[in-house]
Structures are given as C-alpha cells and as structure tokens.
From TrEMBL:
Transmembrane segments: none annotated. InterPro entries: ABC_transptr_periplasmic_BD (IPR002491), Bact_iron-sidero_bind (IPR051313), Homeodomain-like_sf (IPR009057), HTH_AraC (IPR018060). Residues 158-256 form the HTH araC/xylS-type domain. Residues 355-620 form the Fe/B12 periplasmic-binding domain. SMART domains: HTH_ARAC (SM00342). PANTHER family: IRON III DICITRATE-BINDING PERIPLASMIC PROTEIN, IRON(3+)-HYDROXAMATE-BINDING PROTEIN FHUD. Keywords: Signal, Transcription, Transcription regulation, Transport. This is Helix-turn-helix domain-containing protein. The lineage of its organism: Bacteria, Bacillati, Bacillota, Bacilli, Bacillales. GO terms for molecular function: DNA-binding transcription factor activity; sequence-specific DNA binding. One of its GO terms (biological process) is iron coordination entity transport. It comes from Lysinibacillus alkalisoli. Its main location: membrane. It is a lipid-anchor.
Amino acid sequence: MTINEQMKLWNNNLLAILNIEWFEQEDEQIIIHKNLPTSSFIIMTKGEGEVCFNNICHTFSSTYIFHLQKKQSLEIHTSKNCAYFLVYYRSKNKALFTNTNYHFKATDHLSILEPIQQIYQNKNYNLALNHLYITMLAQQFSYQIYRQYHFPHYDLTSQVIHYFHQHFKQSLTLEHLAKHFHCSVSYLSKQFKENTNYAPMYYLGKVRIDAAIELLLTSDATLQEIAERTGHLDGYSLSRSFKKYTHLSPTAFKTRYRLEDLPTIRREFAILSSTPSLYTMNDIENNYQIRREKHSMMYQSMKSTLLALVMCLSIVLTACNTTPAEKTEIKQEQQATETRVVKTPHGDVTIPANPKRVIADQYMGQLFKLGIIPVGVRSYMLSEAWFDYAGISQETLNQIEDLGGFPMNAEKMITLEPDLIIGSIEDNIEQYEKIGTTIFVPYWEELSTAGPIEKFQRIASLFGKENEADEWISDFNNQVTDAQKIINKHIKKDETVSVIQISSQGNFVLASEGGNYGSPIIYDMLKLTPTEQAKNIKDGFENISLEVLRDYIGDHVFVYIGSEEDAAPVLESAVWKDIPAVKNGNVYFYGQMGDEFVMEDPYSLEMQLNKIIDVVENHK
C-alpha cells in the first residue's frame, strides 16, 4: 500500500478508543495479558524491560510504543518502577493497523502520551461534550502514531516547528524544548537557526502573532482575551510583540487590514512560489505546511485563508517599507558589520563598531547618558531612582524588554537578537556568550567595586564614546568643586568621617576605597577624611557587631538604612547613643534602600551629590 493510499484511509478513519488501563509496577514482575479483546496499543511511560509475543521478546524503554492485534497474548517483563498505558481501540478501516503487530521508538513521545493521558482522565465523565473531546483526542493520538511510525527520521527542526504549532498557547522555554526533544539547548538552537536563520523563540513568537492576527481580524475579542489564547502574558505583552513582528499596533493593523480585503489578498497569495525552498523565513510557513501535508492526515487543511493573509501582509509590509528611510537603515546595517577589538578581563573581544541592539544586566544609567537605549535589561534596572531626574519617559522604558534577574532570561535574550551583551557577573558570562557577542564588565571585583567614574569610562570605551564621557566628567568635577566649598564649612579637614549602612543583614562600615551606597561621593569626590578603620577595610565594606560599632565611628557619621524598622534596634540602643559623634549631633541620615544611592551612574552621582549637600547644609 502506497503512502497516498494509506493517507486516504487515514483521512476516512475514525479511531474509537474503547478503554484505557494504567499499570504501574514498583518491583520487577512478569505481567501477562491473554487474548486481548481488541487491537491495542501499549504506551510505555517509564522503566525498561521486554515485551514478548509470538515467541519473540522485544526490549523497551520509556519511549517505546507497541501495537498488538486482537486476541494476541503477551508477557511484559518489567524492571523496577515501570509504568505503561494499555489502550483498547476499534478502527473503521482494518487495513491500517489492526491486522499487524509492530513496535517503534517514538521520536516525540509526549505528543503521543498527552492525548492518552487526557482521555484517561476524562473517560468516566458521561457527557456528550466530553465524548466529542475524547473523539478529538483519539484522532490526535492516531495522527501522532501515524507520523512517528512512518517518519521516524522527521528532522529536529520540523519537529520543533510542529510542536510550536501544537503548543504555542503554553508557556514554552528552550529548556522545556530541549528536554522534550532529548537534546541540549545549544544543539537545538544551533540546528534550528542553521535551518531557518531564526532563533527558536523568535519563530515561536511569529507563530503566536499569526494566531493573534487571525483572532484580531475574525472576532471582537479584547487584546487580553487574544493574549490568553495565543501564549502571551497579557494584552500589553501582546501589543509589544505585535509591533515587533508587524511594525504596527494591533489597532492600526485592524484598521488597515479588514476581512473584505481577503479576495485581493488571496489573489496576491496565489502568485507566490508554490515550491518554496526549505526553511526560508518568508516561506517557512508554506514549507511547514507542505511537509505536514506529506506526513499528516489531521492537519493537511490547517493552513487557513487568514494565515495566507498573514504571509501576504508580511510581504506587503516589507515592500511598503522600501523607502529612503530604509536606505538609511541599510547603511546603518553596513556600518554595524564593522568591528573593533576591546580589552576585557577575559581577553580581547571583537565587537560591532556600532552596536544597535544592546542587552545589559547592569549599567543602564551609563548607557542612557551616552545616548544608548538598550533593547533588554535586568528587571531591577527598570525601576531605578534616576528616571524622573533624567527626564526618561515611561514610553521610552516600555520599549525595553524586562529580562528578569541574574542571570537574565536566555529565551527572551535570544528573541531580541542582540549584537552586544554586557554582563557584570562572571558566572553568567558563559551563558550569555552562547547567545551573542558578550563583554564582561565587572561591577564588583571580589567584594570591592571600581570607582563610578572608572565604570562610566569603561562603558563609554565599548561604544567609542570616550569624548562624551570626558565631557560629562569635566562638568561633574566642576560641580564637585563647588560642593566641596559648601561641605568644608560644616566638616573640617582634620575631622574624620565614617559611612555606615544599617540593614536587616547587619551593620556595615563602608571602606574609604571600593565601597558603594554613597561612599565614593563622600570619600573620593568630596575628599572627606576617612577613619583609619575605613582605610584598612580591604573588601569595600565590613560587617561588624553593635558592640564594636563605637570603634569604627569617626567625628562625623553618614548613615544609610535599609528601612526604619531595620535601623530602630541600633539607633535606639544604649551603645549607639553613647558614641561621641551621636552625642555631638554629627549624624547625617542621607538615604534609604531603593533610592538614588543604590546605583553609580552619572545621573545617580549628580543626585547623590545634591543630596549630600542638602543633608549637610540642613543638618541641625
């Protein structure tokens, strides 16, 4: 029987699942099934062993599928912790599977297992709608059996594409995909990109947007409702993705393209190449459908008219965007291909001369001061205290992707297609390097931090913007000189100064060099005199007990707190009240966690300088 003949039978086949039994064995056993009442499938789910029938034993592992004829008897020799489903079914066309025994190793085991699990969980609900649901799942199961039995070497990229179209509504990650397809993240990403020229998660985003467009043009669903049905977190996330893939907002897209445009769109689509080359991005949807038509009985008609519309619109949008502005973009792209070499703690790294798509897990203020808006940053960087001071609008911030904490989310990073990644923690650099060109610019060096001016200069050097950095540094130094004159009226040169931080984690004395939370402003820039203890702290800070706090406090003390609640036990203690600087009223409360003293970018430094001046001048 030819493949085409089998396909005709499958397209007319209605597989009815009569019953499903679940077997799970903790110990090694021999399970005997005599005279199976119907043709059956055995779906292995875990463990290993042998299935014996017709005097032949076949070894199995957790991804094997067995088909057995009606009235067949068999023995299953199980290992410890072995489990399987026994599926009894009836088929309209006996010429398909019912008259033969066979087995195979599934290439996409979960796609076979999932519909069986759903049927098993719902089989006892005697509702008409439930029967319809089970019937649908049965056909899904039969399709997977057919595809994986006849096409065991269906390549990885095609399998991933197929999986995307089946599961795009779910939350998917590269780690999930790698586990599902039994390969590493790097191998999956490399194979997919080599075959499609796109990262897997970018392609998944396109599948989701195609589905969103279909709902947008065929229903009155809200963006939130569409988001929930297309794998997006919320309506806002959907809107951002929509603009990324179509260059239009959902509202603008719906205004421009309506259902009455379909006849025209169909005619335009009809002149497209009917034999697209494998995996080209413009035709990847067509190619995917062609491959599915060859290997599928359930999905050969799945390419809807609206998906055709989506493809045509992609072409139309591309054509319409060929303007003088595009020529400028092409020129910029050519410039972006130029490279230069920069020195890093990991050696020389070749980077784009004019990177346009920058991701960073630190240094957001430095980037903005240099006129660089990153495409993605660490979550905390989207809530820094200097935005209002710098005049950064919410609209600008909305353009920046939230990439989570340390390390940043790899899947999201891949979809942003960065041409430069800036990482500040050494342990994360290797992961970032798998995604794109990465520069290691340490924020902390062991437990000390480089000076804020040096950090700014390092970032500026990556982009060839040393002149811009020097201009700001010169201006800031003038501000510091003016501030010194004010501060010296209140704190004399021969008086020592301490900087401490009181938090829930302890009492920290900040070093005269390598500290943070305002200590660079106080010591390095305003040139206030540190105590000997502050000079001798090597690692930027030292956590000390309340009992010895007195020994670390100079004539004046600047206090930074985590919260008022954290600070209360220390500030209300007898030890604190007995410290000479406290008795003399030389205590300056200058900040609290989450304010402008957390970061050390140019905007924050200007705010810190102004705050210290204000605190000292208005001290009572």
